[in-house]
Amino acid sequence: MNRLARFFRRTILCGGVLAASLVLAGIAGWAWPPSRQEAAKPSDDASLLEGFRHVEAASVSDALEQISGRKMYMSHRMRPIFPTKFAGLALTVLLKKESNNDPGALTGMLAAIDQGTPNSVYVMVVEDGADIAGMGGLMGTAMYSRNFSGAVIDGGVRDTAYLQKIGFPVYALGIVPSTSISHYRFAGSNIPVLCDGVKVSPADIIVADADGVVVVPRGNAPQVLALAQEMDFKEHSMYAWIEKLKSIQEAVKKFGRL
After folding, report:
1. DSSP-assigned letters across all residues of 143-187
2. Reduced to 3 states, what is the DSSP secondary structure of residue 100?
3. What is the pTM of this model?
């Protein structure tokens, strides 16, 4: 009997040790920092773009100014050819003003489109080009077929009826019937450019809606998105309060947002 009792005591003791080990292992697993891949937050391009597609450009602009102290929105001159809203990654192109008879002067401009990936935003700067169409229906069709999010042209745009027909969104300084052929030369792609006075680097996030175009530097994007979402939530919550209280001052006091 003593031998049997010792066997049961040993079994219980081993079971207790095993249970304690499992508990400690679970605690350690909870407390120990996860691997870099496991700890990664949804700051990848796809998640960021999905977030920015659901916030207002005005909130993004306000968030940027609070976080970086910079105004990163384009001027009132940059307008869409039809009402739209999009977000995407900047693919930059620069055209320099130069009279020429070179049939290959703009080849790089077209190559940039054919090398673009889905969710790209074609950000083109046409030097002194408010009255020069930087793009039209052919280029827009190529971008549309490659699933670009849209285009922002520091210059003019043409073939707007066809662009509206296929539903490809374009912001530009104006609508003009002119051409860049023989008047401009391709000067580079995926380089930093100054688009309507705002610096745009490759892969910056472009956010556009009825209020205009905002450029989000890629390094600030997660923080900007989080703050813009918070601002949107507060502002959208305030509408009902303003109607209920019939006072914008009381709503601002409650939500701290204007």
Report:
1. HHHTT--EEEEEEEE--HHHHHHHT--EEEEEE-----TTTEEEE
2. coil
3. 0.80
CA 33 to chain centre: 30
d(CA 253, CA 258): 10
**Amino acid (one-letter) located at 165:** K
3 state SS for 23-77: HHHHHHHHHCCCCHHHHCCCCCHHHHHHHHCCCCHHHHHHHHHHHHCCCCECCCC
The H or E element spanning position 93 is strand 86-97
Q: Which residues pair with 88 in a beta bridge?
A: 206
Residue bearing tokens 């999009």: 86
Whole-angstrom Cα distance, residue 232 to residue 240? 14
Spatial separation of the C-alpha atoms in residues 71 and 61, rounded to whole Å: 7
How do residues 176-204 score in pLDDT, each as one tens digit? 999 999 999 999 999 999 999 999 999 99
